[in-house]
Amino acid sequence: MNYQGIAIERPNHDTVILKGPKTVVIDPFKVGRIPDVDLVLLTHDHFDHFSLDDLAKIIDPSRTAVVAPESMKDKLADLKVHDKEFMHAGNQKVVSNIVVRAVPAYNRNKFREPGKPFHPKEAGYLGYIVNLQDIRFYHTGDTDFIDEMKALGPIDVMFVPVSGTYVMTVDEAVDAVKAVKPKLAIPMHYGAIVGDRSQADEFKEKIGDFCQVEIL
Q1: pLDDT at 138
Q2: Mutual orientation of helices 197-207 and 170-180 as an angle, nearest 10°?
Q3: pTM of the model as a whole
Q4: What are the beta bridge partners of residue 136?
């Protein structure tokens, strides 16, 4: 789809591609070749968000910058890129002339075993707010609905997980969107690892006329 001059693609799962004067790819997973990528954002190091094979398909070492959580420094040490930045929640940097703000992403109530969340807060996993042509895109990363979402400021487009199990359920995603108040919400995190299109449809139905929803 096109949103105010920025082409938005969601090839699968949590992967998002933003194409305008700059091309940004978030969490590439099972993608094909993507030309002229200026910036890659990695939310965390789980296999369905961080794939060296996929990065090899889209990175131009003379052009592409990569942003990742501080905890991924060792895993990306040998990756040849134009620029490499590591962030923690609260950081804001200009990378490839794109303003990137890192925000928290973690579980409150999704556990691999009692007391051990799939995405613990202390791991420093991230979501990102990316500013392209004065449009603020918010990719939540793998997270539950967390209090920090209530204070993000204006968001134009929000990519929100809906599958449950490891991330927000449909109802939690609806609550998160109503807290963030984006102009457009795009459901993600279904169709590859867990979840399916039915959850995206349910999300759209439950949002109603609160904001625009597009299923990609």
Answers
A1: 98
A2: 40
A3: 0.96
A4: 131
